[in-house]
Amino acid sequence: MMVAISIGSVTIPVVDVWRIVWHHLTGAGATADPALDQIVWNFRTPRVVLAALVGAGLAVSGVVLQAVVANPLADPYVLGVSSGASLGAVMVITMAGGALGGLGVSAAAFAGAMVAVALVFVLGLTRGRLAPTRLVLSGVAVGYLFLAGTSYLQLQATPTELRSVMFWMLGSVAGAKWDQLGLVSTVVVTSTVFLALFGRQLNALLAGDESATALGVDVHRLRGALLVLSSLLTGTVIAVAGGIGFVGLMIPHLVRLAVGADHRRLLPLAAVVGAIYLVVVDLLSRTVNRPNELPLGILTALFGAPFFLWLLRRNKTLDAS
């Protein structure tokens, strides 16, 4: 993280970065040059921390959703969360804050994500129980419905609004501020720890519903609780960073290849690898095309789409089905 903070339009030695961060955290050491202090502490550090939190949150959600809906190609957006968040954010951007009772972009995005998830949950119920296949299909349908609303609003937008919309939909952590990190870090850390406690039950789900029930797991209650938690986690990180695809799909599989499918190890390691991955992607996004900055979603798609195709070819169970 120190290296990521040090690199940018102005390169700052890692030692100086560490000295500034240490001074702000502990009050020890001499104060640095005010300009460098401003760059390191007020701009780059919250940005790198937010990238790490978003990467960790998306990776953990991906691990949980792939187990809960029994689909190795599932990612955090499978329940229409991204489409709902996009519609909420775009409504605020194109209606100058007059939509959704004066909510800000992040709050509106979170509200849109939760509305989409609630719809998917209702549509995914059959005889009072959540059915994995029905959930996925409901997520696709709701996602397209919200996408239609987003597309309509984009057609009405001015060129300036359209640029803001596209940048938000492709994801960015450029606007990170210290005052938004408290809530995001609380949600990501708490959700990750809580979901990790379900590691043994998630392992049982991999064996199928009947086997999990035989092991004493209340499959339907567990599936509902995990979906609610992972949806809240996904909605929170999307609300502050926009739509960033493929992280929740790619990282769980990469970690699974390294440490196996035991969720007691998989969940915490996926959080760490997801955090590192998005910090690196953010670093690339602001350095490969200087002085312009690329949205994160462009780079994650560049890396994630080939991985997705490789995963499709590797997964023989999809061919069998």
Search tags:
75% helix; two-stranded antiparallel sheet; 15 helices; 321 residues; mainly alpha
Q: For the residues shown, what is the average pLDDT? A: 84
How far apart lie the N and C ends?
43 Å
What is the H/E order?
HHHHHEEHHHHHHHHHH
Helix content: over 70%
Shape category: globular
> What structural category arises from helix and sheet content?
mainly alpha
Uncertain ranges: none
Number of helices: 15
CA-atom Rg in angstroms:
20 Å
The biggest beta sheet reads:
2 strands, antiparallel
Q: How much of the polypeptide forms β-strand, as a percent range?
A: under 5%
Number of extended strands: 2
Strand order of the largest sheet: 1-2
Structural summary, described in words:
The protein is an all-alpha fold. The protein is built from 15 helices and two strands. Strands 1-2 form a two-stranded antiparallel ribbon. Helix 5 runs antiparallel to helix 11. The radius of gyration is 20 Å and the shape is globular.
Summarize the structure.
The chain is mostly helical.
